[in-house]
Q: What sequence folds into this?
């Protein structure tokens, strides 16, 4: 077993997890500087300032996401600020960085999708190194689905890290004239990979906390499809399917946690109800944001 502490300097323990963040930021800076020549509104002089915004987005979003998903009772406590105690949410980090990019692009009058396409190139590297750090720390355990033990951290490192990085890198130059396409590909593929990998974790899939993971993944996938496809019908189908799935999942989670009681007959009625609610949400959402 590898020691979670990489080395100690002046009495301060430097962990592999922390080094993973440093390596991700450095590789991200390198990728930004190398590929910035392909963007129109985003320039090289913007990179130092953007890196600060991204760092804030990762830390604030990751920390809030962790406590919101795993320890909601401690969300408004001082534990939130004890970063060295660990606890970062990848989904929270994505949301935090997204907000940071939107604010930065507004302030500097830059196309937010140009920034998003560049930044998403380094996210799989962070996922790859982060999952390897999780493996070293033995933080995420796999289950015995199908009669075999699953090293889920390696699955995630391979799919959300290596494979996703290759996909984004291969499509970046192809989508230079289409800002937002690579951002969309990241959201779609990451959501799919994460959704699948969750089933190989040793956890209660239908607990409230893990239901949130599934819901966030579905929402991110819908947003990715919205950005990727200019054709309205694709987005309508994705929205309709996604919201129906989210509603059904919520009801099932509530049932599993004894908040509501659903019999077989009620379950059949529930399908009709969620189908109807999905139609209502589908039309309301598309009126506001569909092309």
A:
């Amino acid at each position: 077993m590898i020691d979670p502490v990489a080395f100690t300097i002046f009495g301060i323990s430097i962990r592999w997890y922390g080094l993973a963040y440093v390596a991700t930021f450095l590789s991200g800076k390198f990728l930004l500087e190398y590929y910035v020549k392909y963007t129109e509104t985003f320039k090289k002089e913007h990179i130092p300032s953007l890196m600060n915004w991204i760092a804030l987005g990762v830390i604030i979003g990751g920390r809030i996401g962790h406590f919101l998903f795993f320890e909601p009772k401690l969300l408004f406590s001082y534990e939130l600020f004890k970063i060295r105690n660990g606890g970062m949410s990848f989904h929270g980090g994505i949301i935090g960085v997204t907000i940071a990019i939107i604010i930065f692009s507004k302030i500097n009058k830059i196309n937010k999708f140009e920034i998003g396409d560049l930044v998403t190139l380094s996210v799989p590297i962070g996922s790859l190194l982060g999952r390897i750090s999780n493996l070293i720390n033995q933080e995420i355990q796999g289950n015995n689905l199908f009669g075999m033990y699953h090293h889920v951290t390696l699955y995630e490192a391979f799919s959300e890290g290596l494979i996703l990085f290759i996909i984004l890198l291969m499509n970046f130059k192809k989508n230079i004239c289409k800002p937002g396409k690579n951002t969309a590909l990241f959201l779609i593929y990451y959501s799919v990979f994460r959704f699948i990998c969750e089933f190989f974790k040793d956890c209660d899939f239908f607990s409230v906390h893990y239901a949130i993971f599934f819901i966030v993944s579905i929402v991110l996938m819908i947003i990715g499809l919205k950005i990727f496809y200019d054709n309205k019908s694709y987005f309508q189908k994705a929205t309709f399917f996604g919201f129906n799935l989210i509603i059904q999942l919520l009801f099932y989670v509530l049932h599993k946690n004894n908040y509501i009681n659903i019999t077989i007959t009620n379950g059949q009625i529930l399908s009709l109800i969620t189908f109807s609610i999905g139609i209502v949400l589908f039309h309301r959402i598309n009126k506001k944001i569909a092309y």
The CA atoms of residues 243 and 281 lie 7 Å apart. The radius of gyration is 20 Å. Strands lie at 5-9, 12-15.
